[in-house]
Specification:
The complex is a heterodimer. Chain A is an alpha/beta fold. Chain A is built from five helices and six strands, in the order E-H-E-E-H-E-H-E-H-E-H. The chains are: A alpha/beta, B alpha+beta.
Chain lengths: 170, 590
């Protein structure tokens, strides 16, 4: 085995379509961002070694396709996940509803595992449609709520790092 | 009538009298004595809360088990303690640890070495087999063209199947538990592959509504096949190049079963700690099998060339060995037959071979024999002690070596009897007579037949002096003139010495006195005159006193030619010639 880390964790990226899950993963794993939009079909898997409290962890990131009217997220992809990032597009308040549905699905298939609520696209603050009151219910159980931007990198590292920390504790 | 008196209940605690209080205490003791005792015991324990080892020992095993089921914090906190304890234990009693792990380590090492050797030998066989053939040359060109190694190209062309990678995947999370690769294959992103394989399985299963235990069994991508075996807690996926035999499935299944049997508990509680599955490496490596095509069409050209070279080499070697053997045998025979050399034992453990024995100092040097046969002291050495060889050959050699005779001396052997003939200086003869009888192996020695060289020289000198003299006569006369009588007395003196010398040498020389005339007158008259002249000379000599010499007078008439060396034709004279023994004695005795 190539990885030096002996602790591995499966993390799912959950959220509606085009909320920026793939971009967040790309920014986190390779530090890059692309304006081009690619819809994810099925699931895309990436990995990154993260050092948390002197412990090396290998995060295996399951970038699950964004849920919309045409394709529903399959619960089987969520099985065995140690935690997840629930991603909301701050410029589209309807993605909050999808996030709620996915959160319910996640709890059903994984149980109450740690998750981080990420309100993405903070670089487009002027066209923001959501405010904290609107996602109080989702935030109440989240181990961290933060605003992020895959484009500028804001909050990306913190989101994954906090989740990794929680997973190490669990 | 007044109601009976009874203790009235106090209205407030302050109203309780001392008497009431005693009664109450009594009543309380009466009613609650056992409970109170128990309460006081419990109170005592709570106030003095120190855990007793006995209490801990009762709950410890269950406590550990329960805690380990909850999370991994107990395990995490025990890691440093266990590591330190183990480290200390190894330092203090390494033998104990060594003995404990030996039963596991030995078979594991043997297995790993056997696997590595098998792979290496197989790869070497393949490469060697094809390295010299026509096909091999084509492949070499291909390797050059594509930048691959020759061994890799051979492998690709001769491979029937080869398991290149094996993944052990946790079924529930899709996380990679362990991963092994065949030699020369480099794994890349195996964690991602592991996740994708799981995702694909989930997708297929969901799409076709299959049960959880069902799943993909194989995938095919070009020349690669991925065989997947499902277990309750883990999945085994093997990436195979070529066409695998069905028996390989059984190998995969057995491996997965073995892993489940050994790790079922860990698989159930798996929370991402893949280190615990490192021990699955050996069974997984057993799945890295391979099979190559066997060559059926005879042997390659290289084989025949190599075989030919081998036979040729063997032939040369055998020939060389045989001729070496023959040469050695000849050397041994020669040494065995060499006079003056006796080999008593041979030590052949060498090189060098050591010869022990005896050697007469006059025998041939054994080193010289060695070099004659092309050997040196690296191959053979001689440890020989000196001795004296009494065979006739060595007795004679020794006689020559000791006596050092001049070339004129003649050794004559009759068995062990040595007589010396010829001539030698008197001093040598004297020395030889002293040493000769002492020579080992010589029973008798004599020099009676020898002449002293000095005696022969004197004989020859006298003879030469005599033959240089001549007596001259007057014309027609045969009488000795007065002047010639001086010559006669000189001749007489020489002849007397000559006679003595002849006597000494045991000779009877014959001396002729030859008379000559000048050409005038008749032949008969001249013959008569010459005879008269010779006779007159002889008569003038003291012949009666000679004991060995015999002197005769001969008339020769006119000297016709150079009949007598040194004489002019027609001389009126008489000369002296020694006719017996003929010639120079020294020369004739050489």
């Amino acid at each position: 085995m190539s990885s030096k880390a002996v602790i591995q964790k499966k993390i799912c990226m959950l959220g509606g379509f085009a909320v920026g899950k793939t971009s967040l993963v790309k920014r986190f794993v390779s530090g890059q961002f692309s304006e081009k939009y690619h819809t994810t079909i099925g699931v895309k898997i990436d990995q990154k070694t993260q050092c948390v409290d002197d412990t090396e962890m290998l995060l295996v990131l399951w970038d699950v396709y964004g849920e919309d009217d045409f394709q529903k997220v399959r619960a089987s992809y969520l099985h065995g996940s140690a935690g997840y990032l629930l991603v909301v597009d701050g410029t589209r308040k309807e993605t909050l509803d999808i996030a709620r549905q996915l959160h319910t699905l996640a709890v059903q298939s994984m149980g109450a595992v740690p998750y981080v609520l990420v309100i993405n696209k903070h670089d487009l603050r002027e066209s923001w449609q959501v405010d904290p009151k609107m996602y109080e219910d989702l935030a109440s159980n989240a181990c961290l709520v933060l605003q992020s931007s895959a484009k500028t990198g804001e909050g990306v590292e913190s989101a994954f790092n906090e989740l990794a920390k929680q997973l190490l504790k669990a | 009538m007044a109601p009976p008196s009874r203790p009235s209940l106090p209205n407030s605690p302050s109203e309780i009298s001392l008497e009431d209080s005693k009664g109450f205490s009594y009543l309380r003791r009466l009613l609650l004595q056992p409970e109170q005792t128990e309460l006081e015991r419990l109170k005592g324990r709570l106030e003095d809360f120190t855990l007793q080892p006995h209490d801990v020992s009762r709950v410890l095993p269950d406590a550990i088990r329960l805690r380990a089921q909850q999370d991994s914090r107990l395990l995490t906190s025990m890691i440093p303690i266990t590591q330190e304890a183990l480290s200390l234990s190894i330092k203090q009693s390494p033998q104990l640890i060594s003995d404990s792990i030996a039963p596991i380590l030995g078979p594991a090492i043997r297995k790993a070495i056997a696997r590595a050797m098998r792979g290496m030998v197989q790869s070497l066989n393949q490469t060697l087999e094809y390295s010299m053939s026509w096909k091999g040359l084509q492949w070499r060109w291909e390797a050059f063209r594509t930048g691959k190694s020759f061994a890799e190209v051979v492998l690709l062309h001769t491979l029937r199947f080869r398991v290149e990678q094996v993944f052990l995947i946790h079924k529930k999370t899709g996380l990679l538990l362990n991963h092994v690769v065949a030699e020369g294959i480099s794994g890349q992103g195996e964690e991602v592959i592991s996740g994708m394989l799981t995702a694909i399985q989930d997708f297929v299963r969901d799409s076709f509504g299959q049960k959880q235990d069902d799943g993909l069994e194989s995938l095919r991508i070009g020349d690669l096949t991925v065989w997947i075996e499902q277990g309750s807690g883990a999945i085994l996926a093997g990436v195979i190049r070529g066409a695998p035999p069905i028996e390989l499935r059984e190998v995969f299944q057995e491996t997965l079963e073995t892993i489940h049997a050994q790790f079922s508990e860990l698989l159930q509680v798996f929370k991402g700690d893949v280190g615990a599955f490192e021990e699955t490496r050996l069974p997984l490596e057993d799945c890295l099998q391979a099979q190559f095509e066997k060559k059926s069409k005879g042997f390659p050209l290289a084989f025949w060339i190599l075989l030919g070279l081998l036979i040729l080499g063997l032939g040369i070697w055998v020939f060389q060995a045989r001729s070496d053997q023959k040469q050695w045998a000849q050397l041994l025979e020669r040494i065995g037959q060499e006079p003056g050399l006796v080999v008593t034992s041979i030590q052949e453990e060498g090189p060098p071979t050591i010869f022990y024995g005896l050697r007469d100092p006059l025998a041939t040097d054994p080193e010289q024999i060695l070099s004659e046969f092309g050997y040196s002291s690296k191959q053979a050495v001689f440890h020989l002690k000196p001795f004296m060889d009494l065979t006739p050959e060595f007795v004679e050699k020794r006689a020559y070596a000791v006596l050092q005779p001049p070339s004129s001396a003649d050794f004559r052997w009759q068995a062990t009897h040595l007589s010396v003939g010829g001539h030698a200086p008197h001093a040598w003869i004297t020395q030889a007579n002293l040493l000769g009888p002492l020579l080992p192996g010589v029973m008798s020695f004599e020099t009676n037949g020898m002449f002293g060289t000095e005696d022969l020289e004197r004989f020859d000198t006298l003879r030469a002096r005599l033959e240089r003299l001549s007596v001259n006569f007057l014309v027609g006369g045969s009488a000795l003139t007065k002047g010639e009588k001086t010559i006669i007395s000189k001749v007489s003196e020489i002849l007397e010495s000559f006679d003595k010398q002849a006597l000494l040498l045991g000779l009877n020389p014959q001396v002729q006195v030859l008379g000559f005339t000048d050409p005038r007158g008749s032949r008969d008259a001249n013959l008569e005159l010459s005879t008269a002249r010779a006779k007159n000379v002889v008569q003038a000599l003291p012949t009666n006193s000679f004991r060995a010499l015999k002197v005769e007078a001969i008339g020769k008439g006119v000297t016709r030619s150079a009949e007598i060396e040194g004489l002019p034709i027609g001389g009126r004279r008489a000369v002296f010639r020694v006719v017996r023994p003929q010639g120079n004695l020294l020369e004739s005795h050489k």
